[in-house]
Specification:
Blueprint lengths: L1 H14 L8 E5 L3 H7 L4 H10 L1 H11 L3 E5 L3 H6 L2 H21 L3 E5 L7 H13 L7 E5 L4 H19 L3 H7 L2 H5 L12 E4 L18 E4 L9 H12 L8
Parallel strand pairs: 1-2, 1-5, 2-4, 3-4, 5-6
Length: 251
């Protein structure tokens, strides 16, 4: 009975959703491995189930009018901390999912992360998906693979230093110029609004390095469901919770 009533409940939530929905939502798609273990399947099955839930999620985001979504699909830590065969399988699942999204041409895909740490063939497939959707006017979807917040900040500072070295700026001059905006201009998400809301599935209540710089003033929502079990009603509850909060923007 509950399952049959959920569509009606979801439609009511959509009709009554306030106008102040987040412009940018960051989502930590967590729990694929634990979900697979819970259902008695191997890890790859969990990641395939998680990948299959990405397209529905983006449709839900479209439904409420979100403009930017950042999906954390793989951490930089995972490249060193897991079996190479498992990592290779995960990367193949991710790139297949990204290729499928690009084929639809509904969303503008933008790979963000330390692409130089990936196998060249994987990095090229992600870049090609971005090229194929660069003229799409739909929602911007940042695909964070492999991503680490500390790595991003280090890369931003490195890029800033290289830019000014090419201009001949001295270290003394740069020390007098550098500020928050200069670093922000070299982040993977430069030019984009910071996330208003960050959602993490699987019951974990920590950032784990996701959008460390950009989330300074974000709202957070933690959901108990593992990512493959994350439903439209869970998403709508997260958005509704955001609209009901009084944002103090970091104060």
């Amino acid at each position: 009975m509950r399952r049959a009533l959920y569509p009606l409940y979801e439609q009511r939530m959509l009709r009554t959703m306030p106008a102040n929905v987040p412009q940018h939502v960051g989502i930590m798609l967590d729990g694929n491995r634990r979900w697979a273990k819970a259902v008695g399947r191997d890890t790859a099955h969990g990641h395939r189930a998680g990948a299959a839930n990405i397209e529905p999620l983006l449709g839900w985001c479209d439904d409420v009018g979100i403009e930017v979504v950042t999906l954390w699909l793989l951490s930089t830590d995972n490249l060193d901390g897991r079996d190479p065969k498992e990592v290779a399988a995960i990367l193949e699942i991710i790139t297949d999912a990204v290729d499928s999204l690009a084929d639809q041409r509904r969303w503008r895909l933008n790979p963000v992360g330390a692409l130089d740490l990936l196998p060249a063939s994987v990095a090229e497939r992600l870049k090609y998906a971005a090229e194929r959707t660069s003229d799409v006017e739909g929602m911007l979807v940042n695909v964070a693979v492999p991503y680490g917040g500390r790595q991003e900040i280090a890369d931003a500072v490195r890029s800033l230093l290289q830019e000014h070295a090419a201009k001949g700026t001295s270290l003394e001059e740069l020390a007098g110029l550098i500020d928050v905006e200069h670093i922000a201009d070299h982040l993977y998400t430069r030019g984009q609004p910071d996330p208003d809301l960050v959602i993490r599935t699987s019951g974990e209540q920590r950032l784990g390095g996701f959008l460390l710089w950009q989330s300074a003033k974000s709202e957070f929502y933690f959901c108990e469901a593992y990512w493959p079990d994350f439903r439209r009603v869970d998403f709508l509850r997260a958005i509704r919770a955001y609209t009901q909060r009084e944002r103090r923007l970091g104060a």
